[in-house]
Specification:
Blueprint (H helix, E strand, L loop, with lengths): L11 E2 L1 H14 L5 E8 L5 E8 L7 E4 L5 E4 L1 H7 L3 E5 L6 E5 L5 E2 L5 E3 L1
Parallel strand pairs: 1-6, 2-5
Antiparallel strand pairs: 2-3, 3-9, 4-5, 6-7, 8-9
Length: 117
């Protein structure tokens, strides 16, 4: 996991997640940019994680960089719910996909795509 030890809000990216971000970006033909990670209301536990590819951050975004130059963009509102989270990529056959180790989640759902804070 990468990131300086500071009092700043932080999201860490594992090597597996970073490698997957870079691989999927190449597959999408995106040379510069990153993965937008966010939170929206809804889902079986109250809040859902969102993902989208972006060529550059939006005004007000926090940018977090992981191994291999992988970047994620997070808006300030979502960062309130994601601060301290580790973004990983689960490679198991049953639940392949991005996974959040979110210390702010008080409850989670079985599918791993929603949580309650």
């Amino acid at each position: 996991m990468w990131g300086p030890a500071t009092n700043k809000r932080m999201i860490s990216i594992t090597e597996t997640a970073a490698h997957t971000i870079r691989k999927l970006m190449a597959k999408e033909g995106i040379e510069e940019g990153g993965l937008r990670v966010g939170v929206k209301g809804g889902g079986c536990s109250g809040l859902s994680y969102t993902f989208s590819w972006e060529k550059q951050p939006r005004t007000g975004d926090e940018v977090f960089e992981g191994p291999d130059g992988a970047k994620i963009y997070v808006d300030r509102k979502s960062l309130l719910y994601l601060d301290g989270t580790v973004l990983d990529y689960d490679t198991s056959l049953m639940s392949k996909g991005f996974a959040f180790n979110n210390p702010n989640a008080k409850t989670t759902c079985g599918c791993g795509s929603s949580f309650g804070a």
